[in-house]
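Q: Two folds, back to back.
A: First:
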Amino acid sequence: MSAAVETPAERTVEPTERRPARLAELFLLILALAAGITAFAMVGRSVTGELPGDFWPVSLLLTGIGVAAHVVLRLRAPWADQVILPAVVLLNGLGLAMILRLELADTKGAAAWSQMMYTALGAGIAILLVWFLRDHRWIRRLTYTAMLVGLGLVVLPLLPVIGREINGARIWVNIAGFSLQPAEFAKIAFAIFFAGYLVTNRDTLALAGKKVLGLQLPRIRDLGPIIIVWAASLAVLVFERDLGTSLLFFGLFVAMLYLATERFSWVLIGLVLFGAGALVAASVFPHVGARMDVWLHPFDNELYNAVGGSFQIVQGTFALAAGGLFGTGWGEGYPYLVPYAFSDFIYSSLGEELGLTGLLAILLTYLLIVQRGLRTAIAVRDGFGKLLAGGLAFVMALQLFVVVGGITRIIPLTGLTMPFMAQGGSSLLANWIVIALLLRISDNARRPSALPMRGMVAQGGAMHDPIVVGAHDGATPGTGVPVRRPAADAPSRGSTPSHPTEAISRHPDPPTGGEHL
């Protein structure tokens, strides 16, 4: 008896997806590390004539962070976006270089090595999050827990024991000698809550209600969540005296409402509510009105010389003007003349020594991260992932606008800092978590679908005997009589059935997606 020989026509060719080698990310990562390390060296050579004392430890640690994150992504999230990590490492490196430059100029409070430690801690948390969080949809289970955590973090600075007021804003807590800004983490918790809430209620918010002057207005009872967030954001503005955090929270919710419903009426309602609340607060509360006066009349002599007046914003404007188009060069300017040049006003410090050209390159790097986040939101298949990725990308863009707009006097000055560049442990830790979530969502968005090929049974085989419509055991095709048929009798992958068949499952599987975890 001769063995059956499989003919070429009977062979089945199954497509396979090769895991990406992530060479593009590795190449960009090398360029980002080279830019940051070169900036360290140039700062030291310009200020002291030699390499800084912490040059090698900082360089090796930053390189180790980049390589470790690259390896973890290659192993656990191989389809994740390949541009986000190098962009973040570039911003981190340039920010460390500027903080080091201010530290070498004996600027009080500047500490490059402390910033490096927080960078390592934040990157470590991000790596662990990518490693252990295999599916971002699991976070949806924490929707209302995230709401409670976010509200608790917002309230923490108001507590009498641990709350601290610094420079007129009560947005800090001090625990065991460590200062923390809870609002940085609250934005992540609120983004998770908003994504989980809106993916469930977006149809009601988008379709219910009447049209007035072409705008789809929501029903009164559907306004409850936005009214609560509006009141909470104004409470932050009034009691914690922080315009930036207030604007960040409210802007995040309005933006995610628009992403979920695609109704411009929500954006209009949000802008009107926040504008009205800010005007009332400016007229009633003195500290809010003082911020408005500094914004509108910074060059007034009385305001310039007043304690907490416009001195900082004016010096920052002079620093940007001194930088010109190409800047003075690393270590050649006077950024230390601006108060808090290493944190709140690091943008003006970079503008003085790198010029408008350098600032545009930095802003484009931020916009690249935001664009990749929004692209991930478009590509991911589930509704929760779309809203979460879009919200996280938008909150970074809004924070960048608030910081740069305050320094350049587009809007009143706030207490927020530039992500990844300004000195501050809370901001670094929170934004590294944001990046980890974006990378995880982008991996799930780009990962090839596990759906079977046409005519094939999914991996694991049929769980139940199918019901076959059509011919069976010599019956006339097309009778339309359902016949129960064992799965083992179904045609093999490579064979062609002699008559038309259609398998119908007796117990249809529940739909899969963001709404069913």
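A: Second:
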Amino acid sequence: MNSLHPNLRVSLLTKSAATILGLVIVGFACSWSLFAQETPVTEEQESVEAESGDEAPRSEGEPGPLEEAPIEEASEDDQNPDLEFNEIPWELRPYRVLISLAFAADPSLTAHFREQLQSSLQSRIAGTFGPYWKFEIETNGWLIPATPEVLERQTATELKSRFAKSAFDKVIVLNVEDSKHLTLTGWEWDQNSETRSALLQHRVVDRRLRTDDAFDLIIALFRPLARIDSTEGKSAELRARGAELLAPESLEVLLQTGDLLTPHFRYLTREGEVRNVQSVPWTYLRVDSMIRSRLTCTVETAFASALSGSRRRVELMAIRARPSFPETRLSLVPRTNPNMPLVGVRVRVYDELPSEEVPEPHFEEFMTNRFGSITISTDVAAPVKRLLVHSGGAVLANLPFMGGIDREVTLEVPDDAARLEVEGNLAMIQGELIDLVSRRSVMLARALSMARKESWDECDSIMASVDRLPSISIFKSKIIAVQVPGVERAQANRDKSAEKRINKMARELEELVDRYLTATPVRDVKSEIKELRQLSSRSKSGS
């Protein structure tokens, strides 16, 4: 036996053990049959037992032979599994994901093809994500027809009405078509932010790698979430959802240094249900450092305190944002009249704003077309730019902007029509002031020259013309006549910034009037002419 091959030896031992077990079972069956034959139950015994009606004693509450055991009612937590799931710590809470495969009606997409793709995706995702995802894969039955065009038309509002009451945190729909080439198209809908990602499309070059391509597209569509715990100035501390369930090396699905997130508020009712979700515009969080689920981010925003305020029944969340389009069309409209495009507005796009370290940073300058829009290309190396919208001498907007997130974005800026009108009218008054100061200086010089030549008639005529020139009070009246209607118009539009700019321009022009239209030069020339006249009179009388 010892000289046998180890595998053969194991096989013989297994067969021997099976034979012994079979003999034991047969012996037990024979013993049981003999016992049953030795103690038969007669019909008389059965009738006696039935007539006696005696029953074996049972404890209180125990069901009788014909009674059913009472059905135990489910507790409130069992009826509502979301309560138990939401008690899981945020950094240990997995994502509940639904992957819906929408196959086009192409002959090559057979039932075997569909089952094979679904089965291979199931194995691939389960082996990669592990506890990070609790997912299901289904064959889509509501996207009719299953084409990329119909998939693109699905809005976030429609998806909310379809999936808001489901238990899934993420819904990823993949459309598979094979009309000319095997093509995968999909988007992700996120229940936390109630937003839909951009539509991504991938062409499968090698059909044998269709599972790998579908898996890569799912990874690209997935947008992880983070909870904003605290903010201080331009810094924020976040926790990534479920990040403790994966190793830090899983960088394809986890947030990583350099990623950008967009924040949103979730307003809750007293019962903890979501009442409203509001995104924070023109605000981005850049991941500076990360230790597993803990993130430290820099806040780039157009507002003084975008992420501050009361946290009572409010959840402050953030979701990863990545450019999906090569360019973004930015349209500028006034806040009071969004249907009227702003034409001829100057826009500067900076990589970074001027500072002491970089006083003249690189920038691109655009001018809005007749539709009030410009096109900004996506920069993967520096995705967040700084936009400065100029109107005349004023800056209407100074905000961060990330191109490639959407195809088209509309920026509402203050209606600057009132300020522009005031600025134009005040510029005309300033021009009049400059002309008046120049003419008065020339006239005073001529009058002084005539006085020195003792041409008193001409000198008196010039000084009379100087006295008839507009005074300071006349100019200030003109300024007020322009300022008041402009301020009233700005107040009607509830545009405090325009109101401040109008008052500032009027005040600055009044200061110029007081400085350059003062009567001091006229008095000095008149005093000098008087002295010259007296000297001339004395010289004549002395001669």
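Q: And?
A: The CA atoms of residues 260 and 286 lie 5 Å apart.
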